């Protein structure tokens, strides 16, 4: 514990020095004033809407986890991800496939004098979600039955295997204070009407979000008195900030992982949070130029995925063969209908009678997608397809295939896409059903078998049967020819060796559960 | 003097009006409904209805513009499409950081550049003059964003002397000052060269004028001649240059803020453009323009106050 | 708006052959001007002959050799896709040259016309044009560019428009100032009293006399335009991949700055050299064409 770089703000060094003195049997009088323990982290953008019903996702969830009650939280067991009850509940049990009983801990109060945490708050919060923008997560919720001041039952309309992992552990499962939210007009944006957690939230837009101790909190004390989350949008910039000693823990990109594996900054370690995202090259199967499946198949054969992973992801990412991420039921490890084979691609194009094909590829204008796009451009060039790369800002990019957002979807030909996911295969599968055509199914294919498989996957609780369902469903996707699976990029954090970090598989840091080793 | 001020104010108002017209028509030139364009892809139907009412699209164009202009003048810059917060407040939060950066950058450039220019002019064709000449061309030759990247590479990545990212801890002024050094250095460096050259040239011109010769003939000390008589006259074009250069300074600040991940109006505009948060883009551009006009106005007034002859020119 | 104008004013006189030789000697013995000339020639030559000089295809990838430092194979190293940085810099010079050539000549032509219009047109028009020139001249360009790109998307055309709009005012102002001075000179008054049309006066007397200062200004403007293009491309407003421009190279280099610092060093050099080249050349030319500006230098 003599890493001067670690103690730039002095908390760790003085903390351990105190322990050493205490063990030595004498404690100087000054030491009674405990130094404030500060944890310095990075947030990738401004908090816009804290309201779980209307949030954008990501960092907002991170803030909710510190300030709002949840019934369940993720539990990591080796490579598999499960759930456990949080310290907000004394009981959380699945009585039968459609009933979940819970009992809240006694003595937890909402801030601002809004009274104790009650079962009716759970009812209010979850039933409210059904009418929100995140209603998808609560589709199977029938209602919440309040059986006592602190007890209740969540009643589902049908069995829903992923309910704990996808809904209760995740941001949408946050519980709000009925009284405070109603007083605030039913919705809120950048401030919580009331919190019930170890931290209070305050925000300096564009600069930092600060989590200060909540004086009304009577639950378990977190390790850190204060959490300072700096807003740094570019992931590259975080490396510099970390190496300059300005952060204690931060996410890093694949380039940095590759470099830190070779030689990490002094006193630092890497922690992998999960690889719950999937990236693919999509094709609009309805577009006249891509209507012929042989053309789409040719493109599948033409793209050199290994080079993409080597160049854009420094060989850190896992090669993808579908939409179900590594570690989950239904993860696929090989493709069935294509391999990298430019000769085959040329053959298929000739067979389709296509010559001098010109296509466009829309991509996010950030570093990795741009590199991917340029490799695809070169790959397709090698089989005689001229590719124009159209870089887009995040705003127009995320809506280009949506029919509700103008006419771009008609011109959409190829694009690269990356979805984040949660630790259950259901979440990823839902975006490609027939009813999602023109919403998130930009490839615009429909298949009744796929639709029914998605439904079966939700209701099935036998892991082996679920596995088969999800393997089959990805096979159907691949067969459409509209996908070239690219990769799952792992989410890595670099942090001081003496901190144990807690990051959910989908990448939200849970500061309450960070500890000092 | 008051007539002159009035004229200058009218000019400034006219320029702001021009920018408003440009912003207003840009949104209407692009095909599509101005409301959905202004709100961007994330617009909800409720927000569209709200803004349509506010922009009164059923009115004639000039009425729409008048309403828009009136809103801007009264400080109503619209609302953030995500959070519904007032754009005026959001811009207000960020502008301090940008001003701090610009003042620091220009400050050190003035403190170094003007004396350097004076010295070079007083001792023309000496080694000092030559070094100043080479230095100024050298610093002007490196665009500020390149300077920012190189400074980042050398002082932060390689040598680790200075923090690279952000604006420092809120409330910790020492830390904030430390974070200001790199961006202020990068933004200001070119100005050292500009100012030194400018001051040197106008100083040489002034030193050849008859009133300086008479001052010398009266036996005043060289320091007195230079600082009390020559400099106030020689500085005039420089003040105008600083005023006119404020626009360039804002552009450099945008780069510095993006490169050093620093909060500020430039970063705000850059991020809002990427998210297509048009109300913020629009509001921030209006505020920046107003600020720019204000600085130009002030520098003109300052010049006319120092040198009354100028007032007749307009 | 600006009062103490630093723009080169005109000196009208006939030039004897011997004087011209003397000027040439002044230029040739001025090491700064010669250095400038050499750099400018290199700028043009390397851009024009980039396909012949470049050791590699600028878009050819060699992924195993990515992010390499300078070596005999790759004199300026490679980028993240293993493309040869030197070849990309050379081809990026073509983008810079295109923007500079078209941008500068367009804005020079428009500025010349507007400047003459301001000098010889009605007084009110003059005031209006002056107002517009002054507001545009030092408007925060990047901010205007960012605001526009959010509506139109990135393209080289957009960069060109921004370059032209921001460059016009200085040409117009120089033309106007020079034309105003000339308008009052004896020979123009004499010509006019003989019944010459305004157009004739502009073409035969004003134009030949403003060409010199405008060319100097154009040479000074090239590095400004080139940096502007690089800056806009750095922010992602300009060329689209795989085309390389000095700005996109710098952006790519910035993103890998922790892995390899060579890209930002190498891709920055041509910007600096081009600026120095054109600045020195312009100053050398000014010394010949307009010695009055050379006082004390």
Note down, in words, how this protein is organized.
The complex is a heterotrimer of chains A (517), B (314) and C (297). Chain A has 517 residues and is α+β, with helices and mostly antiparallel strands. Chain A has two domains: 229 residues, D-Maltodextrin-Binding Protein, domain 2, CATH 3.40.190; 213 residues, Dipeptide-binding Protein, domain 3 (Roll). Chain A contains 16 helices and 21 strands. The longest helix of chain A is centred in the C-terminal third of the chain and has 17 residues. Chain B has 314 residues and is an all-alpha fold. Chain B is flat. Helix content of chain C is 70%, strand content 0%. Chain C has one domain: MetI-like (MetI-like fold). Chain C has eleven helices and no strands. Chains B and C meet through helix 1, helix 6, helix 7, helix 8 and helix 10 of B and helix 5, helix 6, helix 9, helix 10 and helix 11 of C.
Number of strands of chain C: 0
Q: What's the total count of β strands of chain B? A: 0
Radius of gyration of chain C: 22 Å
Element order, helices and strands of chain B?
HHHHHHHHHHHHH
InterPro entries (chain B): BPD_transp_1_N, MetI-like, MetI-like_sf
Transmembrane segments (chain B): 95-122, 134-157, 177-196, 233-260, 280-303
Membrane topology (chain B): Multi-pass membrane protein
Domain ABC transmembrane type-1 (chain B): 95-303
How would you describe this structure in keywords?
heterotrimer, A: 517 residues, alpha+beta, D-Maltodextrin-Binding Protein, domain 2, Dipeptide-binding Protein, domain 3, 6-stranded mixed sheet, 4-stranded mixed sheet, 16 helices, 21 strands, 23% strand, globular, disordered N terminus, B: 314 residues, mainly alpha, MetI-like fold, 2 domains, 13 helices, 0% strand, transport (chain B), Peptide ABC transporter permease (chain B), MetI-like (chain B)
Short structural description:
Helix content of chain B is 77%, strand content 0%.
List the helices and strands and how they pair.
The complex is a heterotrimer of chains A (517), B (314) and C (297).
Chain A (H helix, E strand, L loop, with lengths): L10 H14 L13 E6 L15 H9 L4 E6 L2 E6 L3 E8 L2 E6 L14 H11 L11 E6 L4 E6 L6 H6 L9 H6 L15 E6 L3 E6 L12 E6 L3 H9 L5 E4 L1 H9 L5 E7 L2 E7 L9 H10 L2 H8 L5 E2 L22 H10 L6 E7 L2 H16 L3 E7 L1 H4 L10 H4 L2 E7 L4 H5 L18 H12 L3 H17 L3 E6 L2 E6 L2 E2 L14 E2 L1
Parallel strand pairs in A: 1-10, 15-16, 15-17
Antiparallel strand pairs in A: 2-3, 4-5, 5-7, 6-7, 8-9, 9-10, 11-19, 12-19, 13-17, 13-18, 14-18, 20-21
Chain B lengths: L1 H28 L4 H6 L5 H11 L5 H13 L13 H36 L4 H15 L2 H15 L14 H35 L2 H8 L4 H23 L1 H14 L5 H10 L3 H29 L8
Helix pairs in contact in B: 1-13, 5-6, 5-8, 5-11, 5-13, 6-8, 7-8, 7-11, 8-10, 8-11, 10-13, 11-12, 12-13
Chain C lengths: L16 H13 L1 H18 L1 H4 L31 H36 L2 H15 L3 H12 L3 H28 L2 H8 L4 H37 L11 H10 L6 H28 L8
Helix pairs in contact in C: 1-11, 2-4, 2-11, 4-5, 4-7, 4-9, 4-11, 5-7, 6-7, 7-9, 9-10, 9-11, 10-11
């Amino acid at each position: 514990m003599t890493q001067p770089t670690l103690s730039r703000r002095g908390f760790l060094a003085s903390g351990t020095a105190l322990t050493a003195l205490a063990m030595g049997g004498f404690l100087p009088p000054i030491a009674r004033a405990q130094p404030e323990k500060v944890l310095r982290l990075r947030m990738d953008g401004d908090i816009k809407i804290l309201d779980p019903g209307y949030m954008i996702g990501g960092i907002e969830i991170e803030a909710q986890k510190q300030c709002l009650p949840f019934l369940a939280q993720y539990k990591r067991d080796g490579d598999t991800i499960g759930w456990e009850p949080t310290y907000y509940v004394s009981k959380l049990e699945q009585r039968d496939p459609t009933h979940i009983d819970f009992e809240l801990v006694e003595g937890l109060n909402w801030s601002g004098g809004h009274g104790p945490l009650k079962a009716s708050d759970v009812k209010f919060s979850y039933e409210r979600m059904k009418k929100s923008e995140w209603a998808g997560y609560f589709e199977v919720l029938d209602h919440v039955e309040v059986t006592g001041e602190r007890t209740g039952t969540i009643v589902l309309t049908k069995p829903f295997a992923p309910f704990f992992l996808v809904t209760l552990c995740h941001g949408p499962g946050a519980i709000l204070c009925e009284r405070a939210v109603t007083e605030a007009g039913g919705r809120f944006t950048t401030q919580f009407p009331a919190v019930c957690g170890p931290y209070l939230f305050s925000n300096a837009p564009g600069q930092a979000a600060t989590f200060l101790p909540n004086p009304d909190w009577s639950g378990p004390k977190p390790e850190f008195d204060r959490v300072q989350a700096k807003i740094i949008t570019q992931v590259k910039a975080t490396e510099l900030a970390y190496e300059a000693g300005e952060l204690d823990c931060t996410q890093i990109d694949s380039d940095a992982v590759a470099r830190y594996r070779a030689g990490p900054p002094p006193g630092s370690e890497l922690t992998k949070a999960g690889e719950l995202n999937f990236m693919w090259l999509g094709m609009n199967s309805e577009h006249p130029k891509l209507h012929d499946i042989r053309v789409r198949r040719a493109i599948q054969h033409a793209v050199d995925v290994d080079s993409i992973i080597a160049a854009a992801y420094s060989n850190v990412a896992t090669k993808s063969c579908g939409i179900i991420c590594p570690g989950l039921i239904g993860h696929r490890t090989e493709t069935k209908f294509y391999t990298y084979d430019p000769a085959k691609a040329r053959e298929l194009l000739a067979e389709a009678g296509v010559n001098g094909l010109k296509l466009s590829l829309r991509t996010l204008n950030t570093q990795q997608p741009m590199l991917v796009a340029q490799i695809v451009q070169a790959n397709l060039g090698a089989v005689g397809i001229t590719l124009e790369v159209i870089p887009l800002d995040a705003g127009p990019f995320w809506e280009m295939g949506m029919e509700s957002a103008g006419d771009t979807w008609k011109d959409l030909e190829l694009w690269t896409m990356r979805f984040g996911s949660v630790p259950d295969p259901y979440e990823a599968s839902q975006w490609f059903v027939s009813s999602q055509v023109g919403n998130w199914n930009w490839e615009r294919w429909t298949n009744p078998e796929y639709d029914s498989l998605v439904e079966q996957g939700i209701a099935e609780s036998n892991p082996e049967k679920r596995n088969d369902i999800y393997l089959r469903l990805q096979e159907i996707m691949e067969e459409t020819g509209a996908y070239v699976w690219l990769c799952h990029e792992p989410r890595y954090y670099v942090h001081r060796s003496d901190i144990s970090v807690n990051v959910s598989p989908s990448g939200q840091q849970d500061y309450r559960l960070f500890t000092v080793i | 003097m008051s007539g002159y001020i009035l004229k200058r104010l009218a000019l400034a108002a006219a320029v702001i009006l021009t920018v408003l017209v440009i912003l207003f028509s840009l949104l209407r030139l692009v095909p599509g409904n101005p409301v959905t364009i202004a709100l961007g892809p994330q617009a909800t139907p409720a927000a569209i209805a709200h803004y349509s009412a506010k922009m009164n699209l059923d009115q004639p164009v000039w009425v729409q513009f008048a309403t828009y202009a009136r809103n801007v003048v009264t400080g109503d810059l619209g609302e953030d499409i995500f959070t519904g917060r007032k754009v005026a407040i959001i811009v207000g939060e960020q502008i301090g950081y940008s001003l701090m950066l610009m003042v620091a950058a220009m400050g050190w450039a003035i403190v170094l550049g003007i004396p350097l220019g004076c010295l070079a002019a007083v001792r023309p064709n000496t080694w000092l003059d030559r070094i100043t000449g080479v230095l100024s061309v050298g610093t002007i030759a490196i665009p500020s964003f390149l300077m920012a990247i190189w400074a980042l590479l050398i002082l932060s990545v390689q040598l680790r002397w200075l923090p690279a990212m952000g604006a420092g801890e809120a409330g910790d002024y020492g830390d904030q000052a430390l974070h200001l050094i790199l961006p202020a250095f990068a933004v200001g460096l070119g100005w050292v060269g500009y100012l030194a050259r400018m001051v040197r040239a106008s100083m040489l011109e002034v030193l050849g004028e008859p009133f300086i010769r008479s001052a010398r003939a009266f036996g005043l000390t060289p320091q007195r001649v230079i600082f009390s008589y020559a400099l106030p006259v020689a500085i005039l074009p420089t003040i105008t240059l600083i005023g006119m250069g404020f626009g360039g300074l804002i552009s450099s600040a945008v780069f510095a803020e993006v490169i050093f991940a620093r909060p500020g109006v430039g970063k705000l505009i850059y991020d809002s453009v990427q998210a297509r948060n048009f109300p913020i883009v629009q509001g921030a551009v209006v505020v920046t323009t107003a600020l720019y006009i204000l600085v130009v106005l002030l520098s003109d007034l300052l010049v006319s106050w120092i040198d009354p002859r100028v007032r007749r020119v307009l | 708006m600006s009062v103490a104008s630093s723009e080169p004013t005109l000196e009208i006189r006939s030039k004897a052959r011997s004087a011209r030789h003397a000027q040439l000697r002044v230029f040739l013995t001025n090491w700064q001007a010669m250095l400038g000339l050499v750099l400018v020639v290199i700028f043009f030559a390397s851009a024009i002959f980039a396909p012949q000089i470049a050791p590699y295809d600028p878009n050819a990838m060699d992924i195993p050799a990515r992010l390499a430092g300078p070596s005999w194979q790759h004199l300026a190293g490679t980028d993240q896709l293993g493309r040869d940085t030197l070849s990309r810099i050379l081809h990026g010079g073509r983008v810079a040259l295109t923007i500079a050539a078209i941008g500068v000549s367009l804005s020079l032509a428009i500025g010349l016309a507007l400047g003459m219009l301001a000098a010889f047109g009605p007084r009110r028009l003059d005031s209006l044009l002056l107002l517009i020139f002054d507001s545009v001249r030092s408007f925060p360009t990047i901010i205007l560019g960012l605001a526009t790109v959010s509506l139109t998307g990135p393209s080289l055309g957009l960069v060109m428009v921004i370059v032209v709009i921001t460059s016009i005012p200085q040409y117009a102002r120089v033309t106007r100032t020079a034309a105003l001075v000339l308008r009052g000179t004896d020979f123009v008054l004499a010509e006019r009293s003989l019944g010459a049309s305004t157009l004739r006066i502009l073409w035969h007397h004003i134009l030949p006399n403003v060409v010199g200062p405008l060319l100097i200004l154009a040479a000074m403007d090239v590095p400004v335009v080139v940096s502007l293009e690089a800056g806009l491309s750095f922010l992602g407003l300009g060329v689209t991949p795989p085309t390389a421009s000095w700005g996109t190279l710098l952006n790519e280099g910035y993103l890998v700055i922790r892995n390899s610092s060579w890209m930002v060093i190498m891709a920055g050099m041509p910007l600096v050299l081009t600026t120095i080249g054109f600045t020195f050349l312009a100053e050398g030319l000014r010394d010949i064409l307009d010695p009055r500006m050379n006082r004390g230098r």
